[in-house]
Every structure is written in structure tokens, then in C-alpha cells.
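Weekly modeling sync, notes
Attendees: S.R. (lead), two postdocs, one rotation student

Agenda item 3: backlog of single-chain predictions. S.R. asked that every request posted to the team notebook include the full sequence so nobody has to chase files. The rotation student volunteered to paste the first one in as an example of the format we agreed on. Action items at the bottom.

Example entry:
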Amino acid sequence: MERAAVSSDTSNAPSAQAEFVVALAVYEGMALITLTEPAVLALLRKFLSVSNKRTFYFHTERSSLEEIARLMRLDYLDVRLPEKDQRQRLLTELTYPGQNGCRHFRYMLAYPGEYEVRRELVVACIAAFFELLWDRDDPSQLWKRLRLVVFTEDKEKAQEQAITFIKGYQECIDYGIAPLIPPRRGRMPVAVLHKQAAALMRSELADWIGTMLTEDVNAAQILEAIQSLAELHAQNTLRHVFKGRLPVYDVSLQIRV
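Predicted structure, as returned to the notebook:
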């Protein structure tokens, strides 16, 4: 099986991969184009080459990788660097809703219409992440910027007890940082959403998309479109996962002197 993994209480940071999907969907709409898989891979390379982000985050679950290994009849699967003859089949399994280990991407793949995004674009973004992760001959070594986290605990069985929206103090935002709160305290798991952390990347993505569009569209318009679509995605995933059964809390962090 996959080598390195972490417990599900390690991180619930916003997925950079999810934000990238939103940005490209907005780009397709504004540029009136349909991106191919090679084009998406090229854009991911381009964004990482200019981005201020040190790492580009995506996650999956050990249980999903174990199921893929079973379907591929493998005793051992190293998802971070599989054998070359395994990669095409592995990409097919990773982009199938039943085997995708990220709940958010699983619902985007299953219900693209609800998310107002082409399923083919979601597939292309997932494939681009792994193809770049596996490209160890890349002169820029961009694969080192990709962070694939594998949860050892099945998120479907985590049984979160609440949804929390985290808001940091302005001094952090001014310095371009946002609070990172682990989604578990003691034995009580919670769903944690860091809107400010996501906002930082969305702003960067809007500026980047702006460099590929005409001067008639400014970064503020792009950012507004990204924020609107990202909010739709978040609400759809919360609805699918929790079905309105959990209490929702807004948590504001304050400086004490």
C-alpha cells in the first residue's frame, strides 16, 4: 500500500486543488474556451512556476487507495510514484467517484451540474496533479511543491459533530497568513472551514487568470466570479456530506495583550 499517511486529525486546510478547479472553470467561462487535459497540465505547471504558495495541497484516504490496489490486483501501491505501466489505469481509478478519496472531489465528479463545472475539467485537474507529482525528470522539479496527504481514518466514518468557520484577526491577514485549526479536539471531530485562508489563494489565482484574459476583464471581476463559484461548491459539498444535520459555528480569533 501507499507508504506515508497521516491521521485524519492532522489537517483540514483548504485544498489548493479544489481552488484551482474553480479558477479554471471561471477562466473557461470568461475566455469562452474548453481546456483539454494537456492544457490543464500546462496551466498547473505555469501557475506553480509563478505562485507564492510553497506547497500545493490535495488529499485522499487510505481506504480509497486500498480499494484501488484491490481493483488493480496489486499487493503494493505507491501512489506518489507508481510504476509507469500502472499510471494510466491508476489515473482512471483516481478520477472515478467511487474510488476518489476526497469527498469534495467525489461529489464534483458525481454531480458536475450542481457544481457548475465540467466533469472533464475536474478529471483533468486531478490527472494534472498526479502527472506532475510523478514527473521526477521535470527540470523545474515542480513535483516537490505538491503535497499529497493520505488520511488513515476514513472521513466517511469520522462523524463530525459540528461545522466551524474560522476567522482570524486582521493583523494575520495583512501579513498574508491565516489561522490553521486542527479539525479534532480530544475525541470530537469537527468540520473546519478556513475561508480567509482560501481567500488568499483565490486572490492570487484571480491575478494570475487576469494575465491570460483581455484587458476588458480586471482581477476584481475575476475574483468575484471565483468567490461566487467557490461558495457554491462549498455549500453543495456541505449539503451532500452533512445533509443539514450539524450545528454551524462562526469562530473569531482575537489578540490578547
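Discussion: group reviewed the output briefly. The chain has a mean pLDDT of 84.
Action items: rotation student to repeat for the remaining queue; S.R. to check formatting next week.
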